[in-house]
Amino acid sequence: MSLSVDDKLKIARRLDKLGISYIEGGWPGSNPKDIEFFRRVGELNLEFAKVSAFGSTRKPGVRVNEDANVKALIDSGAPVATIVGKTWDFHVLKALETTLEENIAMVQDTIRYLKERNLEVVFDAEHYFDGFKNNEEYALQVCLAAQEAGADWIILCDTNGGCMTWEIEAIILKTREVIGIPLGIHVHNDGGCAVANSMAAIHCGCTQVQGTMNGYGERCGNADLAVIIPNLELKMKAVCLPPGRLKRITETSRYISEVANLPHANNQPYVGHAAFAHKGGIHVSALLKNSLTYEHISPELVGNHRRVLVSELSGVSNLLYKARELDLDVNMYDATSRQIIKEIKELENEGFQFEGAEASLELLLNKAFGRHHDFFHLDNLKIIVEKRENNGITSEAIIKLRVNDQMVHTAAEGDGPVNAVDNALRKALLDFYPGVDRMHLSDYKVRVLDGTAGTSARVRVLSESTSGTDKWSTVGVSENIIEASWQALVDSLNYLLMKEEQERKKQ
After folding, report:
1. Are 84 and 126 in contact (CB under 8 A)?
2. CA dist list (Å): 340 to 115, 315, 354
3. Distance (Å, whole) CA 36 – CA 46
4. How many Å apart are CA 105 and CA 12, to the nearest integer?
5. Coil, strand or helix: which one is 163?
6. CB atoms within 10 A of CB 31
7. What is the distance, to the nearest Å, from the Cα of residue 501 to the centroid of all Cα atoms in its chain?
8. Residue 478 class from Cβ within 10 Å (0-12 exposed, 13-18 middle, 19+ buried)?
9. pLDDT tens digits for the chain (507 residues)?
10. Which long-range contacts (CB under 8 A, 24 or more apart) does 11-14 make?
11. Which end of the chain is more exposed for a tag (fewer CB within 10 A), N or C?
């Protein structure tokens, strides 16, 4: 990802509202964007977070007061400096190409220089665990030098991300016997152990965790704070955030995904859309009796919510739970209820997927129980796709709809046939239902359900629509991609209009 300065400031503000203790804003000595971030971050008036500038120790053979990167840390105006130094002798000799003694001098000179200027100094002991395994004595010497120079924190780093949890625990326990200042942990996820290794480090006495929201980071990512923080607060009873702020972690995690323009992982623990989703009928039946049967915490503790999915694995319990959400009067033993379950399973067998299209499911249930009517009916739809030499393809949709016993005939162009149909459909409805002007497609996915059938294969269209404040998903399935898209579009509009009608009735 590449975040703009404005993006970074938005994220910093949101992290502060969550109650994060330190926000590392970047390396002011490396690029103009990070320099601008530190220039502007003071305007945010952060309530909880201290802003930290990241950099390295002075270069070999360079006086600390003449080192440009060290000067940039001071000029940034950040109250905290996080400096990285080598603790693995292999790196000192091969990467820095200097002596082991000079490396220790670099660490001490830099920390002393920053402390003399009243900065809080966090020393990131780079490659500490690999260095400890290769040369325990030297790795500890570097950390002792940082402590003697006045560092406020020593952060033990698994920079390559390959250490196992038991290695992390053993090395931290040995380090604690020698180092007397607060320790922290910084691990990467190359072995898939970043969260577990961070938790183990806290269990062994570390009191700072460095990580990123959603685990974003180079290669396989960093330790995911959206998982670590709930684990620490709910499982280890450790205080991480100000009181009441844990409920904001789901919205913060998803907000940062949006700013980063990356999809939010559905299966992310605690904050994922599927973290508290239940599909199997036996599970849901038990949940109706007590949520603890299949949930390790209440989703509300982290600002998430429970979802019950209706699919081919569903039983009547799933339908009953979903109906209660929609305030429908459903009897578990009612023939209509069982018929709906049968219909849903048949539709899913044909390729429909209601667990990813809950708006279509809600429409289906409301129709089955006589609580929904279609707001318009199609009379005719014609799509013209034209390709001319040396020009792109143009698409036009001509549509006839019956709305409130009136015939509407209109046309619209689009970037493609589906876009043209969407534009024509909303244009035809606008005079009757002004709310459709607020709605637009925000995502559109097509999946071929039977790749062996070639061009005659059935396709599933999942569309996501938004009104600016709400989002909802619908589904369509057909051998014809236009027909499948039409089904999803019609459901999307009907869902919007149904919600608006419900709101009017409440008023």
Report:
1. yes
2. 70, 11, 13
3. 17
4. 34
5. coil
6. 11
7. 33
8. middle
9. 888 999 999 999 999 999 999 999 999 978 889 999 999 999 999 999 999 999 999 999 999 999 999 999 999 999 999 999 999 999 999 999 999 999 999 999 999 999 999 999 999 999 999 999 999 999 999 999 999 999 999 999 999 999 999 999 999 999 999 999 999 999 999 999 999 999 999 999 999 999 999 999 999 999 999 999 999 999 999 999 999 999 999 999 988 988 887 878 889 999 998 888 776 656 656 666 666 777 899 999 999 987 766 554 455 555 666 666 666 666 555 676 667 767 766 776 677 766 667 788 888 878 877 777 889 999 999 999 988 777 778 899 999 999 988 999 999 998 889 889 999 999 999 999 998 988 888 888 888 876 555 555 788 888 888 887 788 889 899 988 899 999 999 999 999 998 888 888 877
10. 11/213, 11/256, 11/259, 12/41, 12/44, 12/46, 12/49, 12/51, 13/44, 13/46, 14/252, 14/255, 14/256
11. C
483, 503 Cβ separation under 8 angstroms? no
Instruction: Mark out the alpha helices in 231-353 (DSSP H runs).
Output: 249-260, 281-289, 316-325, 335-350
Comparing C-alpha atoms, which of 270, 286, 301 is closest to residue 278? 286
Alpha-carbon distances, residue 119 vs 24, 77, 112, 149 (angstroms): 14, 10, 10, 13
Q: Which two tokens stand for residue 394?
A: 């143009």
Token pair listed for 165: 């949890």
Q: Are residues 64 and 113 in contact, defined by beta-carbon separation less than 8 angstroms?
A: yes
Q: 268 near 262, Cβ under 8 Å?
A: no
Greatest distance between any 2 Cα atoms in the chain: 89
Between CA 13 and CA 17 the distance in angstroms is: 6
Which pair of structure tokens corresponds to residue 321? 């739970």
Q: How many residues are given for the chain?
A: 507
| Phi-psi region at 237: left, alpha or beta (left = phi > 0; alpha = psi -120 to 50) | left
pTM above 0.85, yes or no: no
Question: In which residue are the tokens 């059938």 written?
Answer: 453
Residues 6+ apart with CB under 8 A from 421: 381, 383, 397, 399, 414, 482, 485, 486, 489
Q: Please state whether beta strands 406-414 and 393-403 pair in parallel, antiparallel, or not at all (unpaired).
A: antiparallel
Q: Could you give the domains of the chain?
A: 5-260 (3.20.20.70), 277-350 (no CATH)
Tokens of 141: 């010497």
Question: The tokens of 319 are what?
Answer: 């339908």
